[in-house]
Every structure is written in C-alpha cells, then in structure tokens.
Amino acid sequence: MAQRTVLLVLFDGVQSLDVTGPLEVFVGAEQHTPGTYRIRTASLDGAPVRTSSGLTVVPDESLADSDELHTLLVPGGQGTRRPDTQLTDWLREHGPRVERLVSVCTGAIRLAQAGLLDGRRATTHWAYCDKLARDHPAVEVDPDPIYVRDGHVSTSAGVTAGIDLALALVEEDLGRDAALAIARHLVVFLRRPGNQAQFSAQLAAQTARREPLREVQQWISEHPGEDLSVEALAARARLSPRHFARAFQTETGMTPGRYVDRVRLEHARRLLEDTADGIEEISRTSGYGTPEAMRRAFVRTLGAAPSEYRRRFHPTSTH
C-alpha cells in the first residue's frame, strides 16, 4: 500500500480542535498500520500560528515546500473570517491536484473562496451555513449533515465532526477494524454517519426553563417506547394538555410531537447502527409500534427504509 501524505493547513485564528481532532485520527491510523500515512502541518511561510484559543502551533513546513499530497485538509476557525489572498491562491492552485480535499467547520469557506466547492454539495458549521450559501451561490449548501462527501471533496460541520469525517476516511483506506481501533483509543463512536444531523433532538431544542418541562424532556429521551402522547406528557408535567403543549413549544422552540419524533428516530438509528436487534424489536422499543410505522418515518426523514439504512453500516447484515 502506497504511503499517503496528509497535509493540514495552519493559519492564524485556526480552531485548534479542527486541527488536532483529525490529526489524532490519522496519527492513530499510522500507529495502527505503519507506513500508511505521512502526516504534515504547514502554514504559508512555515512560521508558527496562534489558534483562536491562544495556543501557538509550530508547523512542520511552509506550504511552498508541500508537494505530492494525497489528502489536503483545511480546518476552520475565526481566522476564516479574514480574507487571505495568498492562502486562497495557493488553495486554488493546489486543491484540484490532490486525491482528497477535506475541510473541517468553516474551512469550507476557504475552499469556497478558492472556487473549489462550485457545483458541489457541501456543509459547514450550522452557524455559518447561511453565510456560505449567501456568499457562494454556486455551492449547494446542506446545513443538516455532520459531513458531506461529493466526489473527492469532503466537508464537515463544526469541530468534532472533523473527527467523524477523518474516521470515515481512515475506514475507506484501511477498513472498519482499523477505524474501530482508533475510535476506541480516542473514546469516540466509530464514526457517526455523515447524514446524521448536526443537532440531536436534545441539542436542536432549547432546554426548557421550568423544571417540570425539563424533566419531561429527559424522560422522553430515556423512554422512547412509552406512551408519549401530549396527554401522557402533560400529566407527567402536572399541566393540562393544552397548557403543556403551548408551554413546551414556547420554551423549547419545538412542538412535543416533533420532539418525540426526533428522539424516536435517533434511538432507532443508534440501534440499527450499533446492534443486531431485529427491525420489529427496534420499532417496538423505539416507540413506533410496528415496522411499517418506523419504515414510513425513516423514508420520510432519511429517504431510506430501516433495512437499507442498516445495510449502509453493516453490508453483510441479514436483519
């Protein structure tokens, strides 16, 4: 297997975790399978850079000295808010030449400024998706997934999503066992699927201010298979159904029904990805009642039936 050179671009104001997260994944892969990766960091002139958190990072080399790249990774951070003509020109020249072009978080803005995302589907940190779409209309911005792969170009959402994307790339290169070993060492999930939403239901919704509503939110997450009708939840919060529904939406920004739907879908997805439980059992424990009800929810939200969704992660599964 030919050694792949992975280069991480550094600049002042870079988000340190955008760099160190993927870096640890590729270093772990090299330790797992020596000779697989040659990992380098580079700034424009080879000088140290100061990250957005104040950490100083000393690169291995200057971008001018970087050649024969396989994977070029551009992180994000506050520094992407400032125009950098030299870096943009370098990316415009070298980006099309690499085997894999990768961005983490607002690193996608750097790629877009260099015209490298034109005509492609891409994502970035949820807070900057609108800006990316507005400033670069030739880019098809998808604000939901944690990462998007379009041909040889891969873009990821904020910070930790870079780890998920790096694990997916390592799995592509070395196989699932290697990626699993690295994920275990880093104490992270073996790659969240790219089409997983940037926000879980708990993150997408605001946390309710009043304690009874907060307790109901937590109870929903822990008991997706229970009766989660408005009437049942209202009784748990000791409120009338009408008052509960209105208060829940006001305080969380999401209706009770929508919140329950998202929790149940996430629960079912985790079981499909991480267990060998049958479709019927998963539909029951996730609160759908029947496999057909779960199938409709998956097709409506994810565009794939549960069995097809599982095959994406376990191609040999017969469940």
Q: Number of helix segments? A: 14
**Poorly predicted runs of 5 or more residues:** none
Question: What's the structural domain tally?
Answer: 2
Give the topology string: H per helix, E per strand.
Answer: EHEEEEEHEHEHEEEHHHHHHHHHH
Cα-atom radius of gyration = 22 Å
Sheet with the most strands, sense and barrel status? 7 strands, mixed
- CATH architecture title of the largest domain: 3-Layer(aba) Sandwich
Question: What features would you describe in this structure?
Answer:
The chain has 319 residues and is of the alpha/beta class. The protein contains 14 helices and eleven strands. It has a seven-stranded mixed beta sheet with strand order 5-2-1-6-7-11-10, with helices on both faces. Helix 1 links the parallel strand 1 and strand 2. Helix 1 (16-32) crosses helix 6, helix 5 packs antiparallel against helix 6 (176-186) and helix 9 (230-237) packs across helix 10. The longest helix has 19 residues, at 256-274. The model has no long low-confidence stretch (mean pLDDT 89).
